[in-house]
Amino acid sequence: MLLPVRAFSRGNLAANHYLRQRMIERTGWRSRLPGCFAGMTAPFGVHPKDEQRAERMFHLAMREGATTEQIVREATRWLKTQGVTDEGIARQIQRIKKFSANPMRKSKLESAWLITWEGTNPPKDQRKRVASILSGRTSSERVREYVEQLHVDLLYSLREKLSYARNRKANPYPAEFVRIDGVQWGGRITCGHNPHLAARKVKNLRIVKTAQGGEILQWEEVPIQKKHPWL
Question: Among 182, 181, 117, 111, which residue's Cα sits nearest to residue 147?
Fold first, then answer.
């Protein structure tokens, strides 16, 4: 039985050549670009799966130092191999530029652990004051362990880090839960002396644009409980 021979159009050959070239750059952002169009000519990032691919592609491109213009050129090259008209390419490029204006679109957490430097003279620059952010779904105990390790990593000498790794119980500044009526409360954690790290649950943690074009964090504090709910 003879199998039918598949006929390749000039567009298919060009597309195959494009993909072969990009196989060499499998780990690069260029190899992820066709997936943003569902591997064909679908509108850029319109399907939820394609949107996720587009976000990953943009994040990788930024890490590699690629510009929006480079992404547009690469997208144009891919779309031409697919036989897309100039008018269709122009519409796709507009979608890319709108998407690239805010590649990290999920810039809000309904609930989060915010870890900041506190003390008598905390940093005024928010980028230095905010030490870390964790998902609000992280358990209190895991946050406590993380804050203690973070404090060691950021402030301890090499000898002190080695000593901590050998015997954590000997740590002079363990991370501890605050106490309410003498009972530990898992909603707030401190570690250190002055300065010290403070971790607490916050709501609606989000990125906000400043008038100067920069970005800052804003959030809503969760009031510390005056007493345990079961007391």
Answer: 117
Q: CA distances (Å), 32 to each of 28, 42, 76, 82, in order?
A: 7, 15, 14, 16
- Dist. CA 118–CA 130, nearest whole Å: 10
Overall pTM > 0.90: no
Give the DSSP H/E element, type plus range, for residue 208.
strand 196-209
**β partners of residue 217:** 207
Q: Judge whether residue 57 has pLDDT over 90.
A: no
Query: Could you tell me which of 141, 147, 221, 219 has the C-alpha nearest to residue 185?
Result: 141
* 27 vs 210: CA distance, rounded Å: 35
- Strands 108-118 and 196-209 turn out to be antiparallel
Query: Containing H/E element for 77?
Result: helix 68-81
**pLDDT mean over 58-85:** 87
SS3 170: helix
| Backbone torsions φ then ψ of 178, nearest 5 degrees | -70, 160
Quick check: 181 and 228 in contact, CB under 8 A?
yes
CA 24 to chain CA centroid, nearest Å: 27
